[in-house]
Amino acid sequence: xxxxxxxxxxxxxxxxxxxxxxxxxxxxxxxxxxxxxxxxxxxxxxxxxxxxxxxxxxxxxxxxxxxxxxxxxxxxxxxxxxxxxxxxxxxxxxxxxxxxxxxxxxxxxxxxxxxxxxxxxxxxxxxxxxxxxxxxxxxxxxxxxxxxxxxxxxxxxxxxxxxxxxxxxxxxxxxxxxxxxxxxxxxxxxxxxxxxxxxxxxxxxxxxxxxxxxxxxxxxxxxxxxxxxxxxxxxxxxxxxxxxxxxxxxxxxxxxxxxxxxxxxxxxxxxxxxxxxxxxxxxxxxxxxxxxxxxxxxxxxxxxxxxxxxxxxxxxxxxxxxxxxxxxxxxxxxxxxxxxxxxxxxxxxxxxxxxxxxxxxxxxxxxxxxxxxxxxxxxxxxxxxxxxxxxxxxxxxxxxxxxxxxxxxxx
Length: 411
Fold this sequence. Notes:
This protein is α/β, with parallel strands linked by helices. The chain has three domains: 1-101, no CATH class; 103-145; 160-410. The protein contains 16 helices and seven strands. The strands form two sheets. A five-stranded mixed sheet has the order 5-4-3-6-7, sandwiched between helices. A two-stranded antiparallel sheet has the order 1-2. Helix 3 (104-115) crosses helix 15 (363-375), helix 7 runs parallel beside helix 8 and helix 14 crosses helix 15. It is elongated and about 100 Å long. Required for the transposition of the insertion element. Keywords: DNA recombination, DNA-binding, Transposable element, Transposition.
């Protein structure tokens, strides 16, 4: 246990003597030095089987052989410590390993800053400013490269057998492949039968490809091979040809076009001064109690706007088959599937990380950056609770509407 009175007394004495609390040479750095050196001495005691100056060690073979100086980078800045040595060189310390120049906490800081979108140069400058030490860009890259093994394992992990809903989307990133070009990075987000968020994977599209149904077919097939045997509904942005691709993999899955995407695309064809009226006139369509009622409201909308904005009418007509499925369900289901907001909030975080970088030297560098951004989501865990509560009512409605396909997976 830490003696709080002793710590308070040390802080008081340090301030009285003009010593800094933090920074190089400050009180925290000196305490860090004491703790590290004491721990190393304790490790040496355990390694040799006796304490320093203990007669039990006489003529016992291996023994202490002085110390060597070493500077390690810590969260409080660089700290110079003395590391004990043994005569036969078999001592392998763990708290500060051989050739280790940074405590693990610094690596965690680097990964956290990288996950927030900072470049290697910005991280290096931050460490120099805050901790008063120089860490090269190559070292920072080496630290972040350690996540690649975890990323590969995460990308290939087995998945749940059934997901009530899977949201899919793609973002564009710039990757240097001879020359800087836009590439699609695909993302799939599943909602588990317990209402938890499960990011199923990240995939980089091939050079020159846009967001296409053909590539989504490859991704969905991979998800099936990783154990997903059933998806009740898949929500997307209305990509042409996607329903056929989805039903090739899961023949019972309902494909739902995101209503928010339809609205946004509608406004692209209209003058900004008409957006408010258009939104008001479209609302009765996507909030209708049934498909027939929605068709009647859309007929009224078309009669009013087709002459001025025929492209909007055509947009909704072409998307009608994928727009209407959610109208057959209760309000609990409608609320959670009428948009891809669930995945777009994640994409917003990914775009911030991407925009901070400008472009990436390789596809792997782009995926590494986005993976770390995903792993940095909701660090406190509070968002997970809100997410789960939001889905509870919908999951009960899903199980009823889909004839027990969810509860069957629990048996």
